[in-house]
Amino acid sequence: MEITATKGQIIKGKPVADQISETLIKEVNELVKEGINPKLAILRVGANGSDLAYERGALKRCESTGIQTQVVELPEDVTQEEYVKTLKGLNEDTNINGILCFRPLPKQLDEEAIKYIIAPEKDVDSFSPINSAKVMEGDKTGFPPCTPTAVVEILKHYNVALSGSKVAVLGRSMVVGKPAAMLLLNENATVTICHSRTKDLAKVTSEADVLVAAVGRAKMVKEDFVKEGAVVIDVGINVDEEGKLCGDVDTDAVLDKVSMITPVPAGVGSVTTSILAKHVVKACKLQNNK
Ligand SMILES: NC(=O)C1=CN([C@@H]2O[C@H](COP(=O)(O)OP(=O)(O)OC[C@H]3O[C@@H](n4cnc5c(N)ncnc54)[C@H](OP(=O)(O)O)[C@@H]3O)[C@@H](O)[C@H]2O)C=CC1
Ligand SMILES: Nc1nc(=O)c2c([nH]1)NC[C@@H]1CN(c3ccc(C(=O)N[C@@H](CCC(=O)O)C(=O)O)cc3)C=[N+]21
């Protein structure tokens, strides 16, 4: 009898992002007809590669959905006072509905103080503790961070069962890992959070039906980290030894074992930008009592 190996399916972000964009385009059109123009401000310090990658994607997504944008670039050595003054200016600017502050901020800036400055109603990527708390509480009136939201949207789009499933999240940052775990818990998954101190890491992650990798270590997740038939969401955006973009998962090594896996690029990143655009429209509507 011939045995044919069933390879894992590469699940792309584009169909998920396109579906979100389609609805957004209609919503933006309705707002524009009423003289309301949704607008996103991006606050960037210096010009690091991962910020610029996000910015390129975000600007393209906003343009294609009819959302206006403004990029504010501050020098690498910007002072706390200058950053705070700029952020407060964006808070007060009534033409701006959403603000994205790239993180992490350079060392001279006090992120713990700045996160209290951003207006929660314009905070489209969950920098403010008000929005972080809403994620904890499962309160849908806030803005959960875009990347973890994209992870959940991809899983739902590809009909991956979450309720009652074992999910492992690799990473516990406030931008990805920790909120991803909370959003998945809100979907009734049984969530295990792993990090740099986790013992027997591969054993823990290989028990999961769904593995979300957000560690920032190129191709760290190998074959022994995954369960047979698992669904893998690769959030990592890293550069490999050849200078090419790659994820946290060694895709070639796990492909024969998993049932589905997201690619990098063209995976989570592309959905992240569509969630960002969705949050700008939501912010705009709330600010205009719509
Ligand atoms: N696709 C997208 O839209 C986005 C992608 N990213 C990418 O996602 C990745 C993660 O980003 P981010 O969360 O900001 O990164 P951080 O560096 O802030 O966090 C990394 C996390 O991984 C854990 N970790 C690091 N090394 C190991 C290890 N060897 N074993 C186990 N755990 C480890 C850390 O643990 P500990 O807490 O113990 O230190 C930490 O919790 C990056 O590649 C980033 O570029 C980020 C944002 C958006
Ligand atoms: N507050 C904050 N939130 C973030 O979510 C955040 C951040 N700061 N700082 C920087 C990192 C990095 N990041 C990316 C998101 C999407 C793409 C993306 O769209 N990538 C495309 C390719 C884009 C291109 O290279 O042109 C893809 O994966 O297909 C890239 C990188 C979010 N981050």
From TrEMBL:
EC number: 1.5.1.5, 3.5.4.9
Catalytic activity annotation: (6R)-5,10-methenyltetrahydrofolate + H2O = (6R)-10-formyltetrahydrofolate + H(+); (6R)-5,10-methylene-5,6,7,8-tetrahydrofolate + NADP(+) = (6R)-5,10-methenyltetrahydrofolate + NADPH
InterPro entries attached to this UniProt entry: Aminoacid_DH-like_N_sf, NAD(P)-bd_dom_sf, THF_DH/CycHdrlase, THF_DH/CycHdrlase_cat_dom, THF_DH/CycHdrlase_NAD-bd_dom
Pathway: One-carbon metabolism; tetrahydrofolate interconversion
Domain Tetrahydrofolate dehydrogenase/cyclohydrolase catalytic, first and last residues per copy: 11-125
Gene3D superfamilies the record matches: Leucine Dehydrogenase, chain A, domain 1, NAD(P)-binding Rossmann-like Domain
Keywords: Amino-acid biosynthesis, Histidine biosynthesis, Hydrolase, Methionine biosynthesis, Multifunctional enzyme, NADP, One-carbon metabolism, Oxidoreductase, Purine biosynthesis
GO molecular function, one term: methylenetetrahydrofolate dehydrogenase (NADP+) activity
One GO term of the biological process aspect: methionine biosynthetic process
GO CC annotations, alphabetized: cytosol
Residue numbers binding NADP(+): G171, R172, S173, I237
Domain of life: Bacteria
Boundaries of every Tetrahydrofolate dehydrogenase/cyclohydrolase NAD(P)-binding domain copy: 145-287
Classification via SUPFAM superfamilies: Aminoacid dehydrogenase-like, N-terminal domain, NAD(P)-binding Rossmann-fold domains
Function (record text): Catalyzes the oxidation of 5,10-methylenetetrahydrofolate to 5,10-methenyltetrahydrofolate and then the hydrolysis of 5,10-methenyltetrahydrofolate to 10-formyltetrahydrofolate.
Subunit (UniProt): Homodimer.
Family as reported in the entry's similarity comment: Belongs to the tetrahydrofolate dehydrogenase/cyclohydrolase family.
Protein name listed in UniProt: Bifunctional protein FolD
Gene transcribed to yield this protein: folD
